Amino acid sequence: MGGGALLRMGAHAVGACLYLKQWEGQQRRGKSILPVSVMADTADLIHTDASENARKANAHQWISSDPVDVEDWANVVIRFDDGSRATVIVSDVGLGGLNTRVTAYMTDGVIKANMTANDVIETYAVDPRTFESENFTEKLETKAGWNRPSCDEDWFRGFSLEIEDFIHSIHENREPRSGIDLAVDVVNVIYAAYQSAEEGKVIQLS
């Protein structure tokens, strides 16, 4: 599997933020709200002095990430042409299983979408073997204690609706909701984020 955490996982989060701003722009002003600049920081945290000290203290047994020449952590700030911001944080070195959430802070409310882990189902087990044969979620170290299995994972992650929209777009001869423009913007933001992290400055998107 190629690429670091920003490219592999960050593309999904960046795509969600850009899509929501495109949709908001279409509703508010009849055209998409677009990203104009990117500021980012990336790191290979598993190979830092802090991580090495944890290993020496025998406190590093659960993190399996061991990247070669790529980042395992990234923080990206995207500025949009309406002045709003999106912050994306991705990591291969966090415990507790896959954690995918989007939080929108608005002028008159807050929306939190917990895609994984969601709390539709919660389990508790003293012995990790209790739910040994069950698929809970990616990157989960143990099934002991409290957990939140991802039930109907394809639906919660939006895969089913994405495929449905793609089929309808062919039938109706229209662009899919997450079409080529979104894909191009995601790639541009991701590459600008890498450039920003490398050069230590804000990158303007043309």
TrEMBL record:
InterPro entries reported for this sequence: Gfo/Idh/MocA-like_OxRdtase_C
Keywords, in A-Z order: Oxidoreductase
GO molecular function, one term: inositol 2-dehydrogenase (NAD+) activity
Record EC number: 1.1.1.18
Signal peptide: none
Enzyme class: oxidoreductase
Domain Gfo/Idh/MocA-like oxidoreductase C-terminal: 55-205
Oxidoreductase keyword on record: yes
Protein name: Myo-inositol 2-dehydrogenase
Organism annotation: Cyclobacterium qasimii M12-11B
